[in-house]
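Changelog-adjacent note: as of this version, every example in the card shows the full chain rather than a window. The one below runs 223 residues end to end.
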Amino acid sequence: MTTYRIAPSILSADFARLGEEVRNVVAAGADIIHFDVMDNHYVPNLTIGPLVCQAIRPHVDVPIDVHLMVKPVDRIIPDFAKAGANIITFHPEASEHIDRTLQLIRDNGCKAGLVFNPGTPMHYLEHVMDKIDMILIMSVNPGFGGQSFIPEALKKIAIARRMIDESGRDILLEVDGGIKADNIAAAAAAGADTFVAGSAIFGKPDYKAVIDAMRAELATVGK
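Full-length structure tokens:
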């Protein structure tokens, strides 16, 4: 039976009280904290860095999943590992040597993953599956929170699921962008097991009610 994980994105949290926000969302049932890093270069927005990761690390015991939307990417990886990241993912377009970047993440004690934008082909995975712990499929174009889910992403999720199953490896398949209770089951049916949700959770007054509603939808998958 598939284990499903809910990963609230703190991009949509109240930054004036971030420690409280991450504690509350974990208490509400979150499995992972998703940490979006944007550099105003690879994507047209500027968000948060290693100091913020270091600041929230003592507040939660769950894994922190750092999604690097930065270019170049290698320089910043050790900083996030030291700041308490557990998983670090990056975009293949942001690395000159994908295999080396994946190994750098692992050498710094973190799990490593690749992120695929709606227009990024999946072939980057073909020769590095042995170094992959997570595949993240973007169901929006990265750069801003609050966007609508792109249905075409379901096809990419299915392709990634097939590649994971054929590899025989234990690789998380995460989806990020416009995930809500009304589409989470479709993403799960396509093969995703980890779900990033930002405004869908932090934009509501009762985090537990939203996460419970998502889990209820996930419970219907395959029935």
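Structural remarks: The chain has a mean pLDDT of 96.
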